[in-house]
Amino acid sequence: MISIQNLSVEFSAKTLLDNISYVINRRDRIALVGKNGAGKSTMLKIIAGLQRPTSGTVAVAQDVTIGYLPQQMEISDSLTVVEEVRKAFAAIDDLHRKLDDLNQQLASRTDYESAEYHRLIDDMTSLSERIAMEESENMEAEMEKTLTGLGFDRSDFCRPTSEFSGGWRMRIELAKLLLRRPDVLLLDEPTNHLDIESIQWLEQFMVTKAKAVVLVSHDRAFIDNVTNRTIEISLGHIYDYAVSYSHFVELRRERMEQQMRAYQNQQKQIQDTEEFIERFRYKATKSVQVQSRIKQLAKIERIEVDEVDTSRLNLKFPPAPRSGDYPVTADNVGKSYGNHKVFSGASFTLKRGDKVAFVGKNGEGKSTLVKCIMGEIPFDGSLKIGHNVKIGYFAQNQAQLLDGELTVFDTIDRVATGDIRTKIRDILGAFMFGGEASDKKVKVLSGGEKTRLAMIRLLLEPVNLLILDEPTNHLDMQTKDVLKQAIQQFDGTVIVVSHDREFLDGLVEKVYEFGGGKVRECLGGIYEFLEKKKISRLQELELSKSPSASSVAAAAEKHRQSQKPTQPATAPDSSADKQTAPQRKSYQEMKEMEKLARKARKKISEAEAAVADVEQRIADIESRFAAGESTEELIRQHASLKKEQENAMSLWELAVMEGEQFGV
Prior knowledge:
Blueprint: E1 2-11, E2 14-24, E3 29-33, H1 40-47, E4 55-60, E5 66-69, H2 81-85, H3 92-107, H4 115-135, H5 138-149, H6 166-180, E6 184-188, H7 196-208, E7 212-216, H8 220-226, E8 229-234, E9 237-241, H9 245-280, H10 287-299, E10 328-337, E11 340-350, E12 355-360, H11 366-374, E13 380-385, E14 391-394, H12 408-413, H13 424-430, H14 447-456, E15 465-469, H15 477-489, E16 493-497, H16 501-504, E17 510-515, E18 518-523, H17 526-535, H18 537-543, H19 550-563, H20 575-579, H21 587-626, H22 632-660
Parallel strand pairs: 3-7, 3-8, 5-6, 6-7, 12-16, 12-17, 14-15, 15-16
Antiparallel strand pairs: 1-2, 1-4, 8-9, 10-11, 10-13, 17-18
Organism: Paramuribaculum intestinale
Domain ABC transporter: 2-260, 328-541
Protein name: Probable ATP-binding protein YbiT
């Protein structure tokens, strides 16, 4: 569909991409990987037509549509969420014109058995399905399903977009892009503004509904679950493998090892040959062998080892000064803004050396609790910071707060004090800002480079409580691995707010889940936490409650509380826990839940029957196609049934989502 030929890009006489060629095919799901600043975002902009290369071409097949989601974008705030998302269907008139054109082409052709004729039928069927979806009630269902999948509540749909943070507005743009169903999706760090539940939904969407995808992401678990091809950009060149990222890393290492062994063997052969030539060059009796070896040496095709990008971040946090045994103790902490309760009743104790994660949907209070710990905002309850606790805080928007007009060196020089000022060059070199890179202006840095620069601030003075709010956004995989290792070796206490499952795996031993106005402690790592969520229907109910099920959700929460041990799991002296008596659901609440569950089961059963019926009718028509029967009436019936199938599938998915709320 898209052919990239001999593409080169230069910035300030420096080659970023050097004579690159590859093709994006239908159903390709490509992970575009490489270190920060390698040219990944530049490549997406060029494919999207937003930037011109220095040389080379990007050829896009006729009628191929491209959807592009950048890392940052300007977003208007004049409409509600639903009104903004409905813009995704504004191209309906263009689709009708394309369908009319295809109908005219089919009417004028008689080569019914040709590949071109069948391609036209496929295109017309696909286009008819798209128009049918956009013109039917199914459009509203698709919008609702996409928005809820990306973390919006139904109560958010009619709210003005101006009330949402930048991250949530990016989700709105992502929803519009997914609803357009372009032939090629170009996504630049789509998970940066998503929580774990939304990332898992997006994974499922990409696997089941997306067409071709080119994806830049530093979330290893996400790209492994979504992609089937990996293109690495390194030192201006690309390495293209038709495998997932994890498999690519293994194959890349094996290929480098094989190359190195072959190179070393050849070098030994060359050295032996040269030594023979030099030894017997002037002996007449060996002249024939010498000439033979010289010809042999000239014919050897030299093996080259792929150039490896060896620049690497060297990150190590300074030794942590000893703090008290309990750096943070929270007792019945809560936070509200007017009538809106963000969370309440948070009670926990962090011991010295604990490494914990704050996870949950955006807007549930993770960053808010961090601000409470930092003393930046008032709160309810008691929150004590232990003796001699020195906090190092990396905010979610830390990189955006940098002054773009300053150089890298000046940015650090302005905050460094004492002896550290004499070591600024060394520190910058350890963070891959050595040499001329330290004189770059901040505004020309990539997102990952800005994040690295902001991270240096944490090294300027020793701390014993690290609070990192989404530290991996924009960091490449190698840098994330180095950061993870540095945190593992850090001997202080760590709180990490993150949605990156791979980063949290093996790093934290406790997870605090934010949701439904509560903060719950879950012992174990991130994958243990996710596994518990899969088998715990009541927790899923709390995470995905809808207005129609609010009373049931409240009953489920009471039931969950009744199943807890009477002894508090954390903060043994918490008076809030002592005052909370276990509660059981009333008979009326249980009866109401059973009634709603029966209705949900019936709706799912009816939806499944409808899907099975339409699929059987489609199969009957396709068997007639296979037998050589192909009339315009049959084609129209097939397109109509495909539309009906899409509607039935959407209704079934909504029924299943609704059923999950009641444990069905």
